[in-house]
Amino acid sequence: MEEAVASAKAAFKSWSKTSILTRQQTMFRYQSLIKENMKRLAASITEEQGKTSVDAEGDVFRGLQVVEHACSVTSLQLGESLSSIAQNMDIHSYRIPLGVCAGVAPFNFPAMIPLWMFPLALVCGNTFVLKPSERDPGASMILMELLKETGVPDGVVNVIHGQHEAVTFICEHPDIKAISFVGSDQAGKYIYERGSKNGKRVQSNMGAKNHGVIMPDANKEHTLNQLVGAAFGAAGQRCMALSTAVFVGEAKEWLSDLVEKAKSLKVNAGHMPDADLGPVISPQAKRRICDLVQSGVDEGAKLLLDGRDIIVPGYEKGNFVGPTVLSDVKPHMKCYSEEIFGPVLITMCVDTMEDALDVINSNPYGNGTAIFTTNGATARKFTHDIDVGQVGVNVPIPVPLPMFSFTGSRGSFLGDSNFYGKSGLNFYTQVKTVTQLWRDQDVSEGRAATTMPVMK
Known about the structure:
Layout: H1 2-15, H2 20-36, H3 38-49, H4 53-70, H5 73-76, E1 80-86, E2 89-97, E3 100-104, H6 112-123, E4 127-131, H7 138-149, E5 157-159, H8 164-172, E6 176-182, H9 185-197, E7 201-205, E8 210-214, H10 220-232, E9 242-248, H11 255-263, H12 283-298, E10 302-305, E11 324-327, H13 334-337, E12 344-350, H14 353-362, E13 365-366, E14 369-372, H15 376-385, E15 391-393, E16 409-410, E17 413-414, H16 421-427, E18 429-437
Parallel strand pairs: 3-4, 3-6, 4-5, 6-7, 8-9, 8-14, 9-12, 11-12, 14-15
Antiparallel strand pairs: 1-2, 2-18, 7-17, 10-11, 13-16
Helix pairs in contact: 2-4, 3-4, 3-7, 4-6, 8-9, 10-11
């Protein structure tokens, strides 16, 4: 691990001095190589992580969008200037790289999350140390292979492997200036606190409990399809999964139709063409998901659909959990207070949108939320009154495109600058401001001096 940081530090001396156009051209080449290798990357993700082939391609594609955004660095990194702020005095500022940066990536998006990190860091002139998840590092290694094909010098990006020891190493190494993290609350808080204590910038995306509010005037068919896809896609292993549905008023009558749609989803190995969702990441994850479902039942919730005992022929020992729906869930229940991170949709029923707002705003997380309605005034009030960083209107997973930033808030994020977009570029750079004075009387006449110079 020490060698990786030393390599990144040595490479920074030359990489930071390459022209911004050179770094931009590198990203254009990288973009092209990722497109050409989309299916190869997706196959690696499906094999190691378990998500369906289609979902794995989406994983790569959403990361590719950030690479494409990084190609705009020549306009994104423009500085500012003001002439004649005082007599003969001008000021200009510009962004410079930090040095060696690091990223700790989660298991659930083995391509997308690393691509949120190192491409932006590189175009800004930094070098990078990446620690992919120990559960599925294959996609990251393919991405490194493709990066080398672009001509990026050795040492500009380095990969280290491991678990707790590797994370602590990143938090404490004095040559690492900034850390990007996506993952669980426990790890995210540890990295933020330990990294910040050691003087590093940290951006830490953590857990979530994302709510979808269903108004009675919503388009029923569209809304139910969106709910099912957002709750159970990727086996619920998304930090933006819509894991809680809040039915307002008469919309509660749609619960039985929701369950029928969830029943129709096909659970299978991710590489099978008919699979709607694959396995969860590990036996431990499956056990935790099942325990949280049982805790809901024990505390009084109703189990409308139970996917805990599903058996997939040919994969009897697989980590499969089928779509599961709990109703009559209350805020004090463990299945609500903890992030389940599996294909489980918990549902609540309230009388008014104000009640729904109270439920969501009382929850400590602020990653994402959505409202389903055909009423513009209702949508406007919801978006203004909700205390969540990313809001969808008839969009269940409102992950912004990379010209904007990923703006989870409250208990879902620690740090000052969010991922990608302008915030991401600001995170990987610092501002240098130059104030200069050139007096009019010092303007040279342009004549050669032939006299002996003397000190005055």
